[in-house]
Amino acid sequence: MIELINIRKSFGEKVILQDVSAKMEAGKTNLIIGASGSGKTVLMKCMVGLIKPDSGQILYNGKDFTAMDDMEKKPIRQEIGMLFQGSALFDSMTVEENVMFPLDMFARGNYKEKRKRMQECLDRVNLKDANKKYPAEISGGMKKRVGIARAIVLNPKYLFVDEPNSGLDPQTSLVIDKLIKDLTAEYNITTVVNTHDMNTVMESGDHIMYMHQGLKQWEGSNKDIIFAKDKKLNDFIFASEFFQDIKEMRQSEYFQDNKWRGGKQEGGNKTNS
Ligand SMILES: Nc1ncnc2c1ncn2[C@@H]1O[C@H](COP(=O)(O)OP(=O)(O)OP(=O)(O)O)[C@@H](O)[C@H]1O
């Protein structure tokens, strides 16, 4: 589990994150959603140690990451897998070389064992007959699969994914979302995903945190979103009349089938109005 406690970050006069507190749970796909510029990427960079918060704490399984020096952070960094926007593959390396790279850099074991692990990961993301191809020769969805294989090759406890669906068609996006969700549950990973994608929110949002202008505005699950009363969240998620209608339809389905959770009518924990 990753716990954020009162994270603040400013660049010069500009306040980017204001007292953000949240928990990212193990075995769950924890989504951070919000408009462009709301601070999602800065928050993710704080979590992985690429940006130092001005104040607040980030706890990895209870250990204060923010208070550690670089040497102390190293074991936690080795448990982190990352998939950045655009997959960030090495263009001059083949698919298998891209996945071998973290193993060559950080893993123990001989060449044969490393190759076995590389192949296991490519098989797990269903990437067939692509080992010897270069990134320029494969589709966007395949690149994401390679990126995911590379991110999980060292058996991470924590997985950070920034905009997994950028540049993908809706169907391929769903496949990638399912893959991330399945891997998260299978290996009990604490996964954090930044996204704008409404399909991802509705399909994968075990735990969703909505950021608005550097504040945690709302948090809850994809089920809670159907009942959420927070106006800013609703304006963001159900921006069009079409989506407003869908929300109302889903609400009535839940009431009819008595599927709604624990008698709650207003989902999630509204934190700011
Ligand atoms: N290194 C930096 N120096 C100064 N300002 C920065 C820096 N990094 C981010 N910002 C600013 O912080 C704000 C939040 O940026 P961030 O990238 O976190 O937004 P976001 O919610 O991830 O947006 P998007 O969905 O478009 O990626 C923006 O106004 C951005 O310009």
From TrEMBL:
InterPro entries, A to Z: AAA+_ATPase, ABC_transporter-like_ATP-bd, ABC_transporter-like_CS, P-loop_NTPase
Superkingdom classification of source: Bacteria
Domain ABC transporter as annotated: residue spans: 2-238
Record GO terms (molecular function): ATP binding; ATP hydrolysis activity
Protein name: ABC transporter ATP-binding protein
Entry-linked Pfam families: ABC_tran (PF00005)
Keyword field: ATP-binding, Nucleotide-binding, Transport
